[in-house]
Amino acid sequence: MTNLDATTMVLVLALGNLALCAVLTFYDHGPVRPPALAAWALSKQVQAGAWTLLALGGFGVVPEPLALPGGYALLFAGVAVEAGAAWETNGREGWRRPMLLAALLSILTFFVCYLIDEQGLRSVASSLLLGAFYLIGAIALASGWGKASLLQRFLALLTAVLALVVALRGLSVLVLPGGWRWLSSELLRQLSSAALYVLMLSNGFGMLLLGRERAGRELARLELVDPLTNVPNRRGFFNALAPWMALARRPGLPTALVVLDLDGFKRVNDSYGHPAGDAVLRNVVELCRRQLRDSDLVGRLVGVEFAILLPRTNLDEALLVAERIRAAIASTPVKSERALIAMTASFGVTILRPEDSTVTLFQRADDALQAAKGAGRNRVSQAVASPVEA
Does the record bear Transcription in its keywords (predicted)? Predict the structure, then answer.
């Protein structure tokens, strides 16, 4: 009866993993999947094959000398890839080599124990190795704890607890072969099987929920960030500008705004193609960042028009910053596949005034920008000073 119960649990794990593989066929279906999700899907496929082979061996369909070592070899490989997918979730892309090496060592260790099979070494090895891999996955989910979501923290703690339950079965065979009081070997086996089942469910649906959570954060980020240059877009820049507009109504150090527009940018796209134009835009942002402080902010308003927020900066200092950026752009051609592309930019500079709205502020900065373009381009122009500024 005990053997039947164990085989039935293996069959349940096989069917559960096969069901998760079926779900993944329709989840986030497309030509490109996130690396973490792709690795996790592969781990589920390998584990489904492992549990299926073990179940077939338990029912006598496949000979045990083939099913048992083959099934556990696939299982160790699957949980190693699953642990790697957890690292991939946190942006650790170098997991493949160490985790695959760990899987190979685990398979070799299990084969040695399988051949010896002394005092349940086979059971000890499988429990300890599986528990270790799940614990590695828990550590991966817990890395960056301060920035992790509540869901990710819960999954890390749950996985760690269940991994210890799985490993406890192997430890008990080594330390307490006959069990301890009410904690019998049979109860530990049942607890270990239940922990593996819960791990399958929690890691399965947890990874899907984490994927949705991450996609939602990315969509929210793209509402405020320009995907090409990775700086705030118009909405993001205006959100960052709002508190400085409020501070401009109070006495204190002024805040400056610089707007810049690339001169003759259309010829770049027409002559060299849009990839070259994209490279020019990214290069402009990089040149701006090199001339700015950490507290300054550059954003892409629309097309080839950018804005730079300079907190606690007066007009003369802002003009110097704009001139440095102008000189950097003019003296740094962008290398494309076909040629070196020389670019210039025109600048309009102003400071925030107490009575300003975003409309009046940008209108004044844009007037200065148009004055720079009208004066021959590739120059910096300041806005007309108010009576107070004059």
Answer: no
Q: Which CATH architecture has domain 234-382?
A: 2-Layer Sandwich (3.30)
Q: Which two tokens stand for residue 34?
A: 């996130």
Backbone region of residue 105 per phi and psi (left: phi > 0; alpha: psi in -120 to 50; beta: other values): alpha
What angle, 0 to 180 degrees and rounded to 10, lies between the N-to-C axes of helices 64-89 and 185-222?
Answer: 40
pTM of the model as a whole: 0.68
Q: What is the pLDDT of residue 3?
A: 45
3-state SS assignment for residue 291: helix
Distance CA 240, CA 301 (A): 13
Question: In whole angstroms, what is the distance from residue 298 CA to residue 345 CA?
Answer: 15
Domain definitions of the chain by residue range: 2-222, 234-382
Question: For 107-133, what is each residue's pLDDT tens digit?
Answer: 999 998 888 875 567 888 888 999 999
Residue 388 clears pLDDT 70, i.e. is over it: no
Say yes or no to pLDDT of 314 above 60: yes
